Amino acid sequence: MGYVYMLLAAASWALIGPVSRVALAAGLAPVEVAFWRALFGGLLFAAHTWALGLPRPARRGLSGAVLFGVVGVALFYLSYQYAVAYGGAALASVLLYTAPAWVVVGSRVFLGEPVRAYGTVLVVLTLLGVVLLAWPQGGWRVSAAGVGWGLVAGLAYALYYIYGKLQFERFHPVALLAVALPVGAVVLWPWVDFAAKSAPVWGALVVLSAVSTYLAYLFYALGLRRLEATRASLVATLEPVLASLLAFVWWGERFTPLGYLGAALVVLAVAGTALEPWFSRRRSARS
């Protein structure tokens, strides 16, 4: 079930781009969209916490949730927007999905997960696939600021998996996220220039908060409880593939030839991740 939950999380996150278009086209800045996602998503997790009667996390869990809110929510959202602004969406996407490589290193250092040759090959396949998927028609727009902010975004995104493995088995993830997301919203607040919003824009923000934040984070937490951090991060890289498919269905946007190859490599890496336990059992049976 861990793979199913991570696939559902990736599908929920894949809606961010298409649904955000409604809000962005109405004049909202990306940072304001991120603020409302964090605020409304946090309120949904707070309601979930109240409905389950969950206790507030102990001091150690509470401090970890606050740190995750600052780094994993506020810094992640801001750094990705700056990466897009300074380096373009394609470069930002590629640097964001260096996260599985950071997760491999972090999982070894902080979680004691082994670094397997098979898993390393899958990470390389994933990175190559994302590069090809995001390859821009007019070439790359590279700047030091774009690369720097993109790497910060990738590291902050990798924290989702390291933090989750360290905390979600000690404390209930719903209670932790009920703290982390509002903290992220508070940190984002000073950067927000609020714009007037119509009913369709509020509707888009509610969908982003309910589906791409609340449900996505819930699926991510359930999946991470059942999978190693490296495997979970690899499965989640289906997000840009699914987002591109949605863009094709809704707006007729097509992959480039390199994009088709990149999407195939990402799908292959995710399939390889899911099949790895089966391969391991077969090797054990033969030996």
From TrEMBL:
<feature type="transmembrane region" description="Helical">
    <location>
        <begin position="61"/>
        <end position="78"/>
    </location>
</feature>
<feature type="transmembrane region" description="Helical">
    <location>
        <begin position="35"/>
        <end position="54"/>
    </location>
</feature>
<dbReference type="InterPro" id="IPR051258">
    <property type="entry name" value="Diverse_Substrate_Transporter"/>
</dbReference>
<feature type="domain" description="EamA">
    <location>
        <begin position="146"/>
        <end position="273"/>
    </location>
</feature>
<feature type="transmembrane region" description="Helical">
    <location>
        <begin position="232"/>
        <end position="252"/>
    </location>
</feature>
<feature type="domain" description="EamA">
    <location>
        <begin position="1"/>
        <end position="134"/>
    </location>
</feature>
<keyword id="KW-1133">Transmembrane helix</keyword>
<dbReference type="GO" id="GO:0005886">
    <property type="term" value="C:plasma membrane"/>
</dbReference>
<dbReference type="Pfam" id="PF00892">
    <property type="entry name" value="EamA"/>
</dbReference>
<feature type="transmembrane region" description="Helical">
    <location>
        <begin position="258"/>
        <end position="279"/>
    </location>
</feature>
<keyword id="KW-0472">Membrane</keyword>
<dbReference type="InterPro" id="IPR037185">
    <property type="entry name" value="EmrE-like"/>
</dbReference>
<protein>
    <submittedName>
        <fullName>DMT family transporter</fullName>
    </submittedName>
</protein>
<feature type="transmembrane region" description="Helical">
    <location>
        <begin position="117"/>
        <end position="136"/>
    </location>
</feature>
<feature type="transmembrane region" description="Helical">
    <location>
        <begin position="142"/>
        <end position="162"/>
    </location>
</feature>
<keyword id="KW-1003">Cell membrane</keyword>
<keyword id="KW-0812">Transmembrane</keyword>
<feature type="transmembrane region" description="Helical">
    <location>
        <begin position="84"/>
        <end position="105"/>
    </location>
</feature>
<dbReference type="InterPro" id="IPR000620">
    <property type="entry name" value="EamA_dom"/>
</dbReference>
<feature type="transmembrane region" description="Helical">
    <location>
        <begin position="198"/>
        <end position="220"/>
    </location>
</feature>
<feature type="transmembrane region" description="Helical">
    <location>
        <begin position="174"/>
        <end position="192"/>
    </location>
</feature>
